[in-house]
Amino acid sequence: MVVKPLLWLLTLLLLSTTALAQTGTLRGQVRAEGAAVPFASVGLKGTTHGTTADEHGGFVLKSVPAGDYQLAVTALGYKPAERRVTVKAGETAAYTVLLAPASTETAEVVISGTLGEVVKSESPVPVELYTPKFFQKNPAPCLFENLTMVNGVRPQLNCSVCNTGDIHINGLEGPYTMVLIDGMPIVSALSTVYGLSGIPNSMVERVEVVKGPASTLYGSEAVGGLINVITKNPEKAAPLSVDVFGTSFGELNVDAGAAARVGKATTLLTTNLFGYNQRRDVNHDGFTDVPLQQRATVFNKWSLRRPEDRVANLAARYYYEDRFGGQLGWRPEHRGGDSIYGESIYTSRYELLGQYQLPVKREKLLLSGSYNRHHQNSIYGTTSYIATQHVGFGQLTWLKPVSVQHQLLLGAAYRYTWYDDNTPATAARLGDRAANSPDVVRLPGLFVQDEWHLNIHSTLLTGLRLDHDPRHGLVPSGRINYKWGTDDGRRVLRLGAGNGFRVVNLFTEDHAALTGARQVVVAERLSPERSWNATVNYTHQFGPDARPLILDGSLFWTYFTNKILPDYDTDPNQIIYRNLRGYAVSRGLTLNADWTAAAGLKLIAGVTLLDVYRREPDNAARLRQVQTPGFSGTYAASYSLDRWGLSVDYTGQVTGPMHLPVQPNDYRPSRSPWYSLQNVQATKQLGKHLQAYGGVKNLLGFLPRYTLLRAFDPFDKYVAQDNPNGYTFDTEYNYAPLQGRRGFLGLRYSW
Question: Using an 8 Å Cβ cutoff, are 283 and 731 in contact?
Fold first, then answer.
């Protein structure tokens, strides 16, 4: 009676001992130039085994199945490195990995283009990566202004008075660009108008840019591309950092951050303060050239490393802004009145986001979630626009290795959006009285991604997503990407095709069209907006690693259908939503060059050629998209004198002519001129931790010649008097910032 249970117990012990004997331990150290490299990312390619090196560069990977692997190591400031390692059952293998200093900013970090961490050169999806070090070549107080340095990405100002803005990628307008924070849709719809100004440099570790549809992984809105802001890791952040700069126009920006270890957790606290209170009017139209702004941002992130190197992150951010643009004599008591024109916007938002890696051995099961509330209280002349938006997001992803060369990514996501404003867009009728009817969108989705390392040179990536929207039903999207590269990574070819989608969004920036008692009408069963995209990308490195010339070129084509726009003109008592029957096309090419020309001399340049148009069924002519230049270019030249601790940066952008929104018989040109904005900066190292920097922005002092129309009659009280062309007050005519030449000076401390 007792013998049989004992035999079973002995068998189980033998089986468990055999299983343990099939695994081993891998330990080692990461070094560079004779010193340890702390906090490097270490992982075995094709598996979920990975960790972060400690402050002495040491790392340990336990319970690794016996076999041969490729060990990949990356760290900030160094080129990625790989080496072949062997793990034997029941033994501990020890290796030292040597890193070399990075030759370009884009080779510095591990990036994610597929919801899984990969080395940039290994990603089958072309992803551009930018670090704060790159943006410091021309310092700016927020992400929106920093992105002017990125080739093919155009931050566009849409109002000459309040400076609302959006971001165009490869010619597609702002609503089709998705802005993420740590991979979660924090910035969307209502918050894109002014919220992009509230992302300061103090919280940013790097910025990833994907051009082309990314809806397969990220869902609605990622039609034209996405910008993913990766926040700083508290484990790797400086214990104390401060960056303060001001301009001769009276702008003052303060970025400060502190990181500390609290028990088993690490925390990062950053804050940003920006103030500008000068009513400048260089063009003498009686209006502020640049809106007055007072804003504050506080960001706090906690990171807790659990057993088996599982990580839990929790972050929160609060943002507030008081913005005003208008006639010089405007005061707060004029808000909403019709005596002196002003556009006054109060913005308040808070965000919460977190990630937790669930305890699953040999696989990566990650739970992510976020919530944000955005409130905007704004007045445009006499028109008030008060809106609130809540966005909740949850996602579960499961990275399942099938073999060393093959892995699956499965995911489920749910996005909840609640939007309400004081316009007819969210109004309803109950009999004879008006009632409020907030817009609520529940968007669940499932997705799968299959990644095959076909051989040492080739990788194939396929993906499929299925979302459900109550107004559109089931919405599928998919993509396929192929990457080929040489052994040394000097030549990489990427081919990609896919589609993106965007569901209807009642939010609109056309506030003037929403005045009055209009009824919202959905004229038909709406189809989601669709884009189809094909991309060819090729990267080639010439020369030695110490002084490389890296060329990166892309050809892209995007076909866009089912655009959903509100119709205010058919019936003055209605807002009618329907799918437009026409289509739009965005096609072109981009070319980027990164050259370390000599010791201390680095050159970066990029050009983008665009052909963007749409066609309507009743019009055979191509209708060009406004505020979209056919040519644009960016450049940065940097020279360092290490002996003197001095560096000089010369940056700029060149923009070709673009079509502009004009009124009938408008005297202002319908196309903008060529123009260039150029900047120069010198940075001096003062000791080990302190830098002083200063320079000149807009070196040539370029200013648009025309902006506001009928600035003397902003309330259109006298349209019928001495106005044969019927002009009305207009703020949309804009193609360049209204800020002339200005100096800046700053201090940067990091300990």
Answer: no
Q: Tokens standing for 666?
A: 């408008």
Q: Is 646 left (phi over 0), alpha (psi -120 to 50) or beta?
A: beta
- 378 vs 174, 323, 610, 717, 737, CA distance in Å? 21, 9, 35, 22, 22
- Give dist(CA 190, CA 195) in Å, integer: 8
Q: 96 and 135 share a domain?
A: no
Phi first, then psi: give them for residue 511, nearest 5 degrees: -65, -35
**pLDDT, tens digit, 9 for 90 and up, residues 673-713:** 999 999 999 999 998 899 999 999 999 999 998 889 999 99
Closest CA to 589 of 544, 542, 548, 551: 551
73-82, 292-301, 418-427: the lowest-pLDDT one: 73-82
Pairing of strands 41-44, 50-52: antiparallel
Q: Are residues 73 and 219 in the same domain?
A: no
With beta carbons less than 8 A apart as the criterion, state whether 441 and 416 touch. yes
Distance CA 216, CA 226 (A): 12
Nearest 5°: phi and psi at 517? -95, 75
CATH code, domain carrying 66: 2.60.40.1120
Provide the pLDDT for residue 323.
96
Please name the amino acid found at residue 230: I
Mean local confidence (pLDDT), 334-362 = 91
CB 208 within 8 A of CB 127: yes
Asked if 50 contacts 40 with a C-beta cutoff of 8 angstroms, the reply is no
Hey, what amino acid is at 197? S
- 541: enclosing H helix or E strand: strand 529-542
Mean pLDDT of 59-76: 87
Q: Tens of pLDDT along 620-652?
A: 788 888 899 999 999 999 999 988 999 999 999
Give the list of residues 6+ apart from residue 240 with CB closer than 8 angstroms, or none.
257, 258, 259, 749, 750, 751
pLDDT of amino acid 105 = 38
Would 262 be classed as within a structural domain? yes
Q: Which residue has the tokens 């006054």?
A: 344
Say whether pLDDT at 6 is over 50: no
385 in the same domain as 348: yes
Helix, strand, coil tally for the chain in percent (to 5): 10, 55, 35
CB 636 within 8 Å of CB 647:
no
**Coil, strand or helix at 183:** coil
Write down the pLDDT at residue 48.
72
Find all residues with CB under 8 Å of 159, minimum gap 6, and list them.
325, 343, 731, 732, 734
pLDDT tens readout for residues 512-524: 444 444 566 767 7
Q: What is the pLDDT of residue 13?
A: 41
Which pair of tokens denotes residue 10?
């002995």
Domain that holds residue 271: 128-750
Query: 465 near 441, Cβ under 8 Å?
Result: no
Q: Are 279 and 328 in contact (CB under 8 A)?
A: yes
Q: Name the residue with tokens 């160094």.
A: 78
Residues 613 and 560 placed together within one structural domain of the fold: yes
Number of neighbouring beta carbons within 10 Å of residue 178: 27
| The residue type at 575 | I
CATH number at residue 252: 2.40.170.20
116 part of a folded domain: no
pLDDT at residue 519 in the model: 64
Predicted confidence band of residue 195 (pLDDT cuts 50, 70, 90) = confident
Q: DSSP string spanning 283-297?
A: T-SSB-SS-EEEEEE
pTM of the model: 0.83
Answer positive or negative: Cα dihedral of 570, 573, 577, 578.
Answer: negative
Do residues 738 and 162 make contact, with C-beta atoms less than 8 angstroms apart?
A: no
Q: Which residue has the tokens 């909840």?
A: 416
Residue 146 vs residues 167, 250, 750: alpha-carbon distances, Å: 12, 19, 21
Token code pair at residue 217: 């992984």
CA distance linking residue 458 with residue 438, whole number of Å: 49
Q: Is 136 helix (H, G, I), strand (E, B) or coil?
A: coil
